[in-house]
Structures are given as C-alpha cells and as structure tokens.
Design goal:
It is a single chain. This protein is of the alpha/beta class and 276 residues long. The protein has 2 domains: 2-179, Rossmann fold, CATH 3.40.50; 207-274, Formyl transferase, C-terminal domain (Methionyl-tRNA Fmet Formyltransferase, Chain A, domain 2). It contains 7 helices and 12 strands. The strands form 2 sheets. It has a 7-stranded mixed beta sheet with strand order 3-2-1-4-5-6-7, covered by helices on one side. Strands 8-9-12-11-10 form a 5-stranded antiparallel beta sheet. α1 runs parallel beside α2 and α1 (12-20) packs parallel to α5. The longest helix has 21 residues, at 152-172. The protein is elongated, with a radius of gyration of 21 Å.
Amino acid sequence: MKIAYFGYDFFSAALAALLADGQDVYRVYTVPCDNQVDHNQYIFEMCREHKIPVTQERVDAQIINQLHNEGCELLVTAAYYYKIPDLSSTTIKGINIHPTLLPIGRGVMPLPWIILKNLKQCGVTIHKLTQEYDAGDILRQQSFPITEHETFESLSARLQLLAKDLLLEVVTEIDRFWDNATPQGDDASYWPRPDKDQRSLDWHKPVEELERICRAFGKTGCFARFDNKNWSVYGLNAWTQSHNYEIGTVVHKTNSEMIVAAADGLVSLLYFRLEL
C-alpha cells in the first residue's frame, strides 16, 4: 500500500514504526520548524536514510491530485499544521493521529489543556480525515490514566509511544478499521491554542496552580514577571508556606535559582531565561 505521510517530529515515532514494518511510505510532507521548540530533524534524517522525497511545501489540491495519479492509497497526518484538501474526489483514504480522546479536545495544541484541566484520562485517537478539523469517524482509540505529577514532556512521550502502536494496527488492517469506524459523539469540545495570559504565572494564584501551569507547558515555556523583568520559565518547585513577603517579589537567590513569593507559599524557579 502506497502511503504519503504528513507531519513533523512530535509523532516521528509513527513514521519510524511504519518504515520498520516495511510499509511503502513513498512521500513525506513536513512543515518549517525552528528545531528548538518544534522539530523536524528526525523526519529529514529518516527520509535521507530511506531515500524518501520530503518537502516543506504546503499541501494543496494539485499535490493531492498528483498523489491520486501516482496511486497513493493512504494519507497519514500526524501533527501536520496545514489543512489537507478534500479527498472525496480521489480514491485516497486519509487518517489523522490526534493526542486526545476525541471528540473531547479538538484543536492544534491540546496537550497543555489536559494538565491545566486536571483531567484523569487521556489517550490517542486515530480518525478519518474530514474537512472539519478533528471531526472524522474514529477508527481506533485508546486511553491511559494521567498521573498526579504529569508534565508536558511525560505526557508527550506516553502519547507518542501509544500512537505508533495504534497506527500500525490501523494501517495493517486499514479496510477493516475503515469499514467499522464510528462517528464521534455529540459532546465535542474545542480547546484553542493557549494565549499568553493562560501561559503566565500570576503570583496571586495558589502555588498548586502555578506548579500545574508550569507542568502543562514544560519545555515550551510559560511566562512570568519578577525582579522587574519579563521571563520565560521552564521548570519550578513550589510549596505552601505562610509568609509576610510581598507577593511577586524575589525573596531569595541562589547561584541558579530564584525564590518568588506567591499567594500561599513560595516558588523556586529552576529553569528560566529573560524574554528576548
């Protein structure tokens, strides 16, 4: 089966699994990345190793027609920024990997919300591509429990490991999964990309909430103001403690940490840098 793959490194393990299984992935489409927050270097490395043409060109109807004429049978999208044109005039089946239990959590950046909303379950959904984002019939879905101290990084890793296994299941029996796909329920929710306010540490909030915000964004960073400067923060420890410090002030410094007073405790900032 001829497969065209669309995505960047977040789900690159899915592409690796397809190649290791001997699937005929013959074209790959990725997106421009800064290779600091978003990455595509693994995608390019795999394409070089397997001599697969790869491009960052945005997919359009002409590319879809080209794939159809080449006999492409399956289109797999996995963390692909751009909307795939309508496939209904082709014979290509299109599927997408989404890192929530659809229909809950549609959207382009759902991972932080899983932690921010303090959900107890998460998982991966593989669904048919439609012209409405993340709304296609479900082919395969599996959940797992969220731990009390889940981070952006741990959640990402768990989702990536599960996604590659589910994708192989679906691809190896695509006709059976396709014919037995189930429509999504009526309880759909859309989670927008978090804005700067939602990513900011407000020192008037409880330390439990500040810690959750930092866990939710991890290496992508949240924002804070202290020491009369604006900072990006990537890791912290926090604890409740009675104090008489002014909220938002730096009350202690070490060679690598700053301790900031919050509403009901103290926050030790571990990894942070000045905003550019």
